[in-house]
Amino acid sequence: MLLRRVGIENIANLVGHGGHFVCSASFEKRSLTIPLQFAADVFDSVVICENINHAELHQGHGATLRDHFGANCRMAWLNTDNPLETGDSLFGGIADLARDSSQRIVVDISTFTHESLLMLLRVLYITRQCVNVTLLYSKATEYSIGDRPENKWLSKGVGEIRSVLGFPGRVYPSRALHLIVLVGLEYQRTIDIVGRYEPTEISLGYGRTGDLPSTDDIGHHGFWKVHAIYEGAREFTFSPLDPIAARRKISDQVKRTDGYNVIVAPMNTKLSTIAAGLVACENDNVQLCYAKALVYNYHNYSRPGEEVFVVELEGEDRDNL
After folding, report:
1. pTM of structure
2. pLDDT at residue number 214
């Protein structure tokens, strides 16, 4: 796995021509940031994923992407209320691309939901014959725009808590449960997940960027609110922007409780969600879970940035995807 950081103005030249492109239309302006950097005819085909049950909240971003790529694109309609429908649509829209061993797949992962992104990874794993998979992530400069750090929010309320389709793990009733959570801003969802599973062991992951003081890290306030409730939980840090390093940290936590059932809840960045997905692809004992939010911060969710993270999956990484 290779990780690079480039300016948005350089992404088109770095990616080049040919292959297949997959992106997601959402209410975030970031859903347009990367796709609109590419000319309409750069890719052999384009798949635009969009949650049909939320399409009216997307401010016409799906239509903008369709107009931009024209006849070269097709839609894959997803549904956050129905993971089976989402899985079927992703498999139908992506599987044939992944079977084309002469081509590559470029995926803008920025605005997929965590659940649909993990399902997409599983589809690529099932049909992993493509020569190269490139993941692109547009980093936001701010979340919950304009709010004070302690008041920032991305979603409110929790609906169904479920295992991610394609990542059921192996759960034995006779075994103790180790719950690993990559905590983000949405601390209430984390609290609800812990309450739902009532694990024997809890590991709370704190996403830390470089050497910044902890109070400047995204998710700082959420992490400590969760930790105040579950004081006996084990703490560990991981990089929210480096899936290579995060993958190692998550694997270390999984190995720490050998003989336990293990559930991982990736609640931080999409890059760390990729890391959790790779761990679960490598280890079928690991279950991934998702807590569906009831309301999102539609109008002030994020501010698009000028930096793109480029993750190249090659060799063993691609085999484990």
Report:
1. 0.91
2. 42
